[in-house]
Amino acid sequence: MIELVAKPPCEGLLPVTIGTVTLSEPDMAPLTLIAPMKGKEVALAKAMQTAHKLEWPEAGATSGANGAALVWFGRAQALLVGVAASTKLNAHAAVADQSDAWARVVLEGEDAREVLARLTPLDMRDRAFPVGATARSEVFHMQASITRMGADSWQIIGFRSMAATLVHDLTRAMESMAARSQR
Amino acid sequence: MRIDGNGLINRAKPVSFQFDGTTYQGFEGDTLASALLANGVKLVARSFKYHRPRGILTAGSEEPNALVTVGHGGSQDPNVRATTQEIYDGMDARSQNRWPSLAHDVLAVNDLGAPFLGAGFYYKTFMWPKAFWEKLYEPIIRRAAGLGAISGEPITDKYERAYAHCDVLVVGSGPAGLMAALTAGEAGADVIIAEEDSLLGGRLLSEAGEIDGMPARDWANEVAIRLNAMSNVRVMARTSVTGAYDGGTYGALERVGHHCEMRDGLPKECFWRITAKRTVLAAGALERPVAFQNNDRPGIMMASAVRAYVNRWSVAPGKSVAVFGNNDSAHDTAADLLAAGVHVCALIDSRPDATTTLDVPFYAGAQVSGSEGRKELEAISISRASGTDKVQTDCLAMSGGWNPTLHLACHMSGRPDWDESIAAFVPKPGMVPGLIAAGACNGVFSTAACLGEGAGAAVVALEAIGLQADMPKMPVAEDRDYSISPLWAVAGKGRAWLDFQNDVTVKDVKQAAVENFRSVEHMKRYTTQGMATDQGKNYNVQALAVLADATGRGIPETGTTTYRPPFTPVAIAAMAAGAEDKGFAPERFTTSHRLAVKAGAPMIEAGLWYRPSYFPVKGETHWRQSCDREVGYVRNAVGIADVSTLGKIDIKGPDAAAFLDFLYTNMFSSLKVGRVRYGLMLREDGHVMDDGTTARMADDHFVMTTTTAAAGQVMQHMELVSQGMRRGMDVRFTSVTEHWAQFAVAGPKARELLNGLLDAPIDGESWPFMACGDMSIGGVNGRLFRISFSGEHAYEVAVPARYGESLFAELRSRAEALGGGLYGMEALNVLRIEKGFITHAEIDGRATAFDIGMQGMMSKKKDFYGKGAAARPGLLEDDREQLVGLKPTGVVKQLTAGAHLYRDGAEPVRVNDQGYLTSVAFSPTLGTYLGLGFLRGGRARHGETVKMVDHLRGIETTCEVCHPVFLDPNGEKARD
Amino acid sequence: MRIVCPLCGERDSREFSYKGAALALAYPSEEAGFEAWDDYLHNRDNPAGPTRELWYHGSGCTSWLVVTRNTTTHEILSVELAEDAPESRQEASA
Q1: Do the Cβ atoms of C8 and A123 come within 8 Å?
Q2: Which CATH architecture has domain A16-27+100-181?
Q3: Are A59 and C61 an interchain contact pair (Cβ–Cβ within 8 Å)?
Q4: Which residue of C has its CA nearest to A139?
Q5: Residue A41: count of CB within 10 angstroms of its CB
Q6: C81 and B CB contact within 8 Å
Q7: How does pLDDT run across B461-496, given as a tens digit for each residue?
Q8: Annotation: CATH topology of C2-93
Q9: What is the count of structural domains for chain B?
Q10: What's the whole-model pTM score?
């Protein structure tokens, strides 16, 4: 029997540290897009609570428990990160495995927010974007999901096929910020 | 020359720089302008049109004259204002628009020809012959009249773009701006204060007054320190707010690296997009010159600039300075000069009732009517009713009054009001929603009033965004009235300059009026008044005052020209920062990209994707050899191609089938689970949007395939239908394009290959043509579709993308072992043309289902998107251009895509046009060129000979019209 | 320009794309006739003042929005989800 070898989206590109900021790729984790069917929002939220101890997130919010996270991912959908989705959800939602669809990176460090401010039009001030907040927006020319994981820690999810560009654009902004910070 | 005094320069840090090849010394804190004046350099530029000697006029970003080029090659910046450029060690600046040198400029002869070079000269003179304009006149004029030049080399500097958000944006940091920022900052608002200069303080840095009992600039420094210490305040120095846009959005240019030798990675400039809930415009005011004969000589400067050079930089711009004005502020300049120990040879005030307590020769009710000197000022003429005096002087400080810097307030088409009391335009409230003007830019000039307006504007802004705010305790400051008597142009002969940068004189504006260019917008374009890099900031108001006078109207009736962004020039490099090279657009790579490149495949762009054209092997010297070989793989053995770029959309829900029935022209609710069907999608206008196959994985689960090009468009369309026209349907869908790596395994040996790979083998019964389902390879779950884009027995096999590269390598080696191998886009294209399969070359937005022969797929049993529109008259006519196949029959055996079709024997001109070719390929299988194209009434013309003419490439041949499927018309091979 | 997406909040206009008048939501039935189709496809008012238009939040939540915008001032008067817009409801009655 043949054995297929798995490769993460940013293989060979990360981690990189420039100035105060590090860009890295966490281990590949299950990613499942969950979209409630019409009128099943409440039932899904309950099933999600039972199966994964996770709150269904409001627009722009995330919830987390036991190493899993539920990230609001756009109109009527959320991305379950870190744990395989329970089949019990299927009764209430369209469930699609997207574990291989996305390049997921983490940008951390003192200047991380300023690095992102070079690429996304999002308002990322503390009041507008506290820890735990998430948004679908742009990272330079591409669509992305941006989540604030900590004061100086941001998860960015972009298309897997564009991983090299995502790393390129972020790295360029990191270089720029590092040069500014040295002044 | 440098004088004693406590200017804001660091005398302990000398800085060495070059101007036009000569090395000079300045100090840290100097601008190029202050350093040149300190070194006695007065001639710094040649004017745009007449090549007149020019000196430094101002001390700010409004400077029209002192433009220089800094740096070399890929780092060269033309048109840098010497008045804002801070010097640094090793800086190399050069003057512009002169040859061979600034002192001896050959084209200064233009000045002698001035009587002939007035307004409209070009339009009147270079009229014919017409072709001469582009080829001869314009290049010569461009060379003679001009500003600095770019090097033409690729940029080596870095530029940057960034976003910022705040509650209150404060534009400018004079007394009004500082108070606004302080008030808003202390109330807890997120504040951005943007200042063009390197230091906060605005005019307080250049004036001698006091605030709260301390020198005004010390007070400014204290406030700056407090602002910098607030975590909710972002101080952005060296940042010009360049434009006001909808919704509280502002553009701003930060000069990050201009003032230092470039360091690795440091951007030269950053273009900011700032959003603000409220904005306090505290941009100050700009002093305007007075037009009099030869008012453009080096040494004639703005009075406020002279004051700034003396106070801020401890530089005396002359040994014996004359001061001329029509308002009170000119007197302050004279006072400051005296206090600094500079000789003042005359104070001239055009107001007859003016008085002074200064110990200087004073001329009330007098005007400067002329100047002498060539490369620098030597003397001025002072005219009074009693006669004209000549006074020797090497520097004239002039003040025609102040124009509020209201530009940003006018960027959204608002028109300002004329305020007679200050003889200037002032902003009206609400011209830019959310923007409040305060201080000098609002027509209020005393320091105390500016402080008060700044704080007041902040309070209004804070209340508007729901923050508690009280008026702070106001610092004590000067609160004098401002008095002015308008003086635009001193009467007299000779040329009196209005626009220094574009060389427009009072005479030019009057000439424009005589020739009936009475509208201010027409006058501007006829004379080029205010059209240069400075946009006439100093002197547009004078020009329209002269126009008003010449046309017998008042200034308010004459009106202003339109203020447009940017306030100061913005380099394209800054606006496009990051979009060069790999930043231009995202690159999308399939999982097999690395191996394809390694195999030597030239990659071509397909949208954002990169796909292999062909995979050359040793000995092949032409792409056709590779392509023909790869076609042979598929027709005779087995070929492998990465088809992951096609859009894949996962559709689920009880109404999934009904949703697809509405999206596609044909029926999908009747599709069996485990089967795939080809579908056609129309736009709302009844023309074809896209095509592709859709697989039914379960009753309520479909996987749709779109073309690579239309994947995004189809997804957007589906969202519109499900949120709009069919919002009642219970269906959810998401793109899974990126999740799956999908490969075509095509050819007679496809099943043999797969059965060596799949965990559970397949046969014709379990996987007939158009079957689909789950499968696994090495324990990895994936999907298998028996579909074909080549007409051969073929499959598409999909695994999660992480395994893509590994599976691709495996498929390749197994295909090669079976006498096949990889095939690229070229072969893929040949294979589909041989089979008459369409792509977006055929469904190019103008084709209907009827045109491509798929009218049978438009279901009569149901409504579908575009159905009503597709039934409109004219879309189903027999003489429409219909899809046909074409084979060359003439002496020339080549077909070309884009060539047009004509009846055999007809003249190949537009009126005889019968259609065109959309796709062509050389078919190694059939040994001939094949073409797909559209021909009028083509379906009824199979067998006819038509003429193909490619006017662009000069190719002409005849072809036979035939059915568009050239190979295996009954599709037996795919079903085999 | 800033658009307040009902789901995402205030966002930069670069996240959105424009698709003409919101009238596009009032999709005629297949039997509506040529004139109704012609009108739907081709005829649009060009008001100086408030106009209702379709925007797609493609770089955000993928909602289709109906934005009421004043064409003379660019002021955005309201933003609603297309699925809640009256134009969408016309389809049901058609």
Answers
A1: no
A2: 2-Layer Sandwich (3.30)
A3: yes
A4: C59
A5: 14
A6: yes
A7: 999 999 988 899 999 999 998 999 999 999 988 899
A8: Folate-binding fold (3.30.2270)
A9: 6
A10: 0.95
